[in-house]
Amino acid sequence: MKKIKLISFFVFSIISSMSMAETISAWGGTVSEAEAKIANIAKEKNSSYEITTSRMDNYSYVTAKLTENRK
How many CB atoms lie within 10 A of CB 21? Predict the structure, then answer.
C-alpha cells in the first residue's frame, strides 16, 4: 500500500509541474535580440525562462520554457 501511495505521489508531482510550464518563441536579427524578446515576455508574465532551442540563419529563432516564479 505504501508503494502505491509513493508512486502516486511522484506521478502527480510530475503532472503538476508539467502544467506550470509554458513554451514561447521569438524571432530576431541576432540571438541576443530574440533572447531579449523572450526576457520581456517572461518579465510581463512574472516568470523565469530557460532557453530550450536556438536557430540562426538569416534570422535568429529562440524557443524557451517559462516557469512561474514562486514566492
Answer: 12
Backbone region of residue 46 per phi and psi (left: phi > 0; alpha: psi in -120 to 50; beta: other values): left
Ramachandran class of 4: left when φ > 0, alpha when ψ lies in -120 to 50, beta otherwise: alpha
Q: How far is CA 29 from the centre of its chain?
A: 22
- Host H or E run for residue 14: helix 2-19
Which residues lie closer than 8 Å to 54 by C-beta, 6 or more apart?
31, 34, 60, 61, 62, 63
pLDDT single digits (tens) 39-64: 999 999 999 999 999 999 899 999 99
Q: Tell me the C-alpha distance between 30 and 16, whole Å.
A: 35
